[in-house]
Design a protein that fits this description.
By secondary structure, the chain is α+β, with helices and mostly antiparallel strands. The protein has 2 domains: 183 residues, no CATH class; 97 residues, CobW-like, C-terminal domain (Hypothetical Protein Yjia, Chain: A,domain 2), CATH 3.30.1220. The chain is built from 7 helices and 16 strands. A hairpin with a 6-residue loop joins β4 and β5. It is globular and about 80 Å long.
Amino acid sequence: MARHVLLNNVEHKNLRIVTRHGKDLGEAVGSVPTFPTEFAEILREYPIFFRKDTNTGEYGCIALLGFARDENLFLEGDRWDASYVPGIVARGPFLIGFQERQDGGELRREPVIHVDIEDPRISESEGERVFLENGGNSRYLDGIANVLSGLNEGIAASKAMFAALIANDLIEPVQIEPLETKLREINSTAAIVRTKRCRIEPELLFGIGREKKIAPPEHRHQSEFESFAFTSAKIFSRECFEGFANGLPVSVVRAKGFIRFGNGAQLFNFVTGRWELESFEFDRTELVFIGRNVGAEKEALVRTLKKCEV
């Protein structure tokens, strides 16, 4: 059970925090809360959904990590496999609180840091020091303070955002275009998929790392998206193909399949700008490209691909 106490450099002078990641640290979760102040970073890695609390009726945002309650596809052993860790995770066992004090006869509420001393990341023998030998804040604690400050600002921003949405009867179809425009200003390469009742092909959300037992690619895809397939029995230059993958246009949301190099075949997985190759036994090249109006890009993409044949 959590036990939150006010952090101080006397009682907690020897406090250290284990900063690795893992299921044993409570990170085997399918989603985490997220806030508008971190949307620019979150959108590069995670799908964002709005969710209504059935008990309070309040709305909030979540970043999707997996398909089940306890599935986190971004956990790789003790490593978080993404360039940005959501603030609610990065804060570790710390949270922000407020304490009141008199200032010139006026009562003020000031933010202070609390720590959950029952959290499994708490240690006195390993991890990052919270306080320096002289009692000052460590660089790690300064970083945590910045994360908590961002979360605090994000909570306020989230309330203001949803108040505006509710005042306008949530998001009507006429509001979708300006919303998409704003999202593209934040991240021009993010794929935006319109859905009804969150119905979407999971492969469009999570491609990399989702399924290791791969069947040959099929042509199933979300309505409003197009796809085309490319096949070849020839060998491809890996260096040339990696350049091709790095240069895929933003209209390509998803690409998957197999590519044959001189030293064997590789499974290719591409999702909105991120891609990976993984050794896989296959006797030919078969690739599928999915995206908006991707048919218009087919001739140029195939021409570039053929230049990689050796």
